């Protein structure tokens, strides 16, 4: 069972999916311990709700360094954190001299875009949509050019803060911030 968990984690890592630390060290009792988490990043727009404190709630965009600026607590780095950890961090900062037992909720309003480069008719930046595959992304970019190497498409994705190149299929899911490269074929 332990080997199965290692294989699942390895395959997910190759696919570019981020797992929480607890999933990496999951016990051998359950396969459901491995939960996928979304990490906030530069360009994401989030809504922070501090219950009972409308003046502290609002919508914020993560800057290039993953920081938002909130009333009372100021600049707070939430880039690289999942939503649960971002909620905890904001609540901790608010509890440090400002509020008693703050209840905080964070949700993503708009995901950062993904990018598609190379042999597509309209390369560029496109808005992310949940459930989007490589084939959907290519369709948004008006399709392949006649020179596209359709079987050698790669995604550059941040995995644990490191840019990782991943070979994909038409059905591979696209995540926010992905850079899809469609290379040119030689023959």
UniProtKB/TrEMBL annotation:
Residue span(s) of domain Polysaccharide export protein N-terminal: 37-108
Domain of life: Bacteria
Gene3D superfamilies recorded: Outer membrane lipoprotein wza domain like, wza like domain
Signal peptide positions (record): 1-23
Domain Soluble ligand binding: 114-161
One function term, GO molecular function aspect: polysaccharide transmembrane transporter activity
Keywords: Signal
Name recorded for this polypeptide: Polysaccharide export outer membrane protein
Organism, as annotated: Kordiimonas lacus
């Amino acid at each position: 069972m332990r080997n199965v968990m290692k294989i699942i984690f390895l395959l997910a890592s190759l696919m570019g999916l981020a797992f929480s630390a607890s999933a990496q060290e999951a016990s051998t009792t359950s396969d459901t311990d491995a939960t996928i988490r979304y990490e906030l990043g530069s360009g994401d727009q989030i809504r922070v709700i501090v219950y009972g404190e409308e003046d502290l709630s609002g919508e914020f965009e993560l800057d290039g360094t993953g920081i938002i600026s909130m009333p009372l607590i100021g600049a707070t780095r939430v880039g690289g954190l999942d939503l649960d950890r971002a909620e905890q961090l904001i609540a901790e900062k608010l509890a440090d001299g400002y509020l008693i037992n703050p209840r905080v909720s964070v949700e993503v309003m708009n995901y950062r875009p993904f990018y598609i480069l190379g042999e597509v008719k309209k390369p560029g930046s496109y808005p992310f949509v949940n459930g989007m595959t490589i084939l959907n992304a290519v369709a948004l970019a008006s399709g392949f050019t006649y020179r596209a190497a359709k079987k050698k498409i790669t995604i550059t994705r941040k995995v644990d803060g490191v840019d990782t190149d991943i070979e994909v299929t038409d059905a591979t899911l696209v995540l926010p911030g992905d850079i899809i490269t469609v290379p040119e074929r030689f023959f």
